[in-house]
Every structure is written in C-alpha cells, then in structure tokens.
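Researcher: Next sequence.
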Amino acid sequence: MKRRILIVSNTSWSLINFRAGIIRALVSSGYEVIAVAPLDGYSDLLPALGCRYISFPMDNKGTNPVRDLLLIARFFFLFLNERPHIILAYTVKPNIYSSLVARTLGIPIINNIAGLGSVFINDNFLTKIVKFLYRVTMSHSTKIFFQNDDDMRLFLVHKLVRTGVVDRVPGSGVDLLKFQFKPLPNVFPLRFILIARMILEKGVGEFVEAAKIIKTRGFDIDFCLVGFLDVQNSGAVSRKQMDDWLKEGHIYYLGEFKDVRQQIESADCVVLPSFYREGVPRTLLEAAAMGRPIITTNTVGCKDVVDDGVNGFVCNPRDSVQLADTIERMIRLTNDERTIMGIKSREKVTREFDEKIVIEKYLKAISNIIGTSSACLNTSKN
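Model: Next structure:
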C-alpha cells in the first residue's frame, strides 16, 4: 500500500513554481501525492507532476472569523476523507488551520515557514493574533522547516514552536538544471529587472523612484518590472498606478510570465528592494543560478542570497536614493566585473541553495515519520 502525502498551499501557482521539485521527488519515491490548493491558472499543470489535484477554495487574505471557521471545517472533512499518512503545509492559513485539524485527527504534519510576509512587518494587534495562532496550532507539529535563521530564531524566542522539531532549509531551493548559467547580454542600454508580485512591500515603488533618479543623472538604462498585478492584496500596485508610472516613461512593465528564464537572461542585473519578510526570495535564487549579479536589501531572507560586493550589492530598505546610488555603482562596473559577480552568484547558489538539499531534507523527515508511525501501529496491534 502506497503511503499517501497531502500537500496544502494557498495557491496552485505556488505549488507549480516552488514545490514542483518536491512533488516529483515524492512521486518518484513511491508515495501517492495529493496537491490541495485553490483553483487558478496553474491548477491544470499539477497532474503532469504525477500527483492528484483537489480544488480547495480558500480566502487567502481575509480575516473574517466565520470564513476561517468554515475553512477549518473543510480541512477536517478533507483530511477525514483522504486519510493522508502525512501532511505537508505551506503558507500561513494552511500552516495554521491544517495543523489544528491534523492535531485533532492525529495526523503527522510538516510545516514550512516560507517567510512571514507583511503581517510581521509591524507589531500590531493582527501580529499578536497570528503569533497566538501559530503557538496554539503548531505546538504539536511533527517537523517545522524555516527558510532562514531569522524567522526560526523569532519563533523560538517567542516560544511559538518547540525547539526539538525545527530545522532550516535553504529557501525553496532552485533547480540548477532548469536555471542554467547564461552569459550577460553585454549590449546597451543595460537592463535592470525587478521580478516579483507587484505589491509595494516588494519595493516596487522604490525601484520606480530609483529609475527616475538614475535617468535624471543622465544614464540611459532600461528598468523593467516583471510579475502579476496582485489586485487582491492590500499592498497591491493598482493598474492605474502602473499606467501612471508607464506614462512617466522611466520604466517598462513587461507583464506576467509562467517561465521567467528569458527575462532573467535579458538582464544585466536583477533587483529586489523588498522590505517584505521573505523566506528566501525564489526570484533572486533563479537569477543567481543564471549568473546574474544581484541588488537587494538588508532584510530577512533577501540578504541571505547576496554577499555584499561579491555577487552583488546590499542596500537599506525603503530608501530609493540609496537604491539609486547602488544601481549607479553597478552601472559603473565593467561588463567583466559584472560577469565575475554573476559567476560568484552561480557558485553561491550551487553551494548553498540547490533544490536537492531541500528535497533530501524532506525525504529524510518523511521517512523518519513514517518509520515512527509504522512502529506505533505495530506496537498497538501487539
């Protein structure tokens, strides 16, 4: 009988972009894998990974307690119906509410804290509620993976999780075969690209302002935005705002791409001036894997990808003037100097962020849990 693993996330998009490697590895290892997420434009791609897909509606951004109670009930009936041997949970609501239900039903669960997002940027009432929910619901999790040391330390200091079950994985990792090293374009004008959801916490506004500053300094540079307009997010860049920026003529908006490799290859530098509490930004890992120098901020998760002055530069968040100064510093390097930085990016990702490292940690944790569960079952029968 195949062991059944249920993977829950708040979007099918995130499963395809961040969890495809682990899904394939689990299927190849002989597990029955069930992917659970809301229906979106990426849902149809999930069965091609070898898993079964269940459409599962979820109010990702809402704080309505009635809707969240209904979500808990849906998780309860889903788990009761599918009877998974292990649950892998990603993103905030699946982590919190599926952990609560898994605990009630006695199902082992592995959580992944992939950054703390905008909720933990400010210490307000909502932050206190979320901390309380993490503490209550994940106190009996079998394993909890964090994507950076800062988040793991925060959870331990505030006693939101137990010490013995935590471990760190290097972000979601990156597929080094898919994202291969590519030489810099070495054409003019140079191209600086920001790849992210178009939300303000990702530093989109600072990037646009820095582009204006650079243009006023007399540099002919292409500044490009790549990513979808996440209109349901409270910090989303509106379509009107994007249109206003485009009319000013300092940036280009290239839109959304299911595969960003061509956009990365066209770039001389990838920029992410985020002040969002990232896990480890996947776009930076992909850019580094393809040999691009990086400019990012000295914030949780982002700083893990860049050794300042080696494979890119780090600047302060929410500071468009310093960001512009840092971009100018990159512009003034020779192509050979930027190329060396790109080579160092590839070396760093290969050494520290290979997707295989993440997959191996999951396979080991799952094997240990199944071994323990089987032992318990055998003991109970004797």
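Model: DSSP finds 13 helices and 15 strands in the chain. The CA atoms of residues 69 and 97 lie 9 Å apart.
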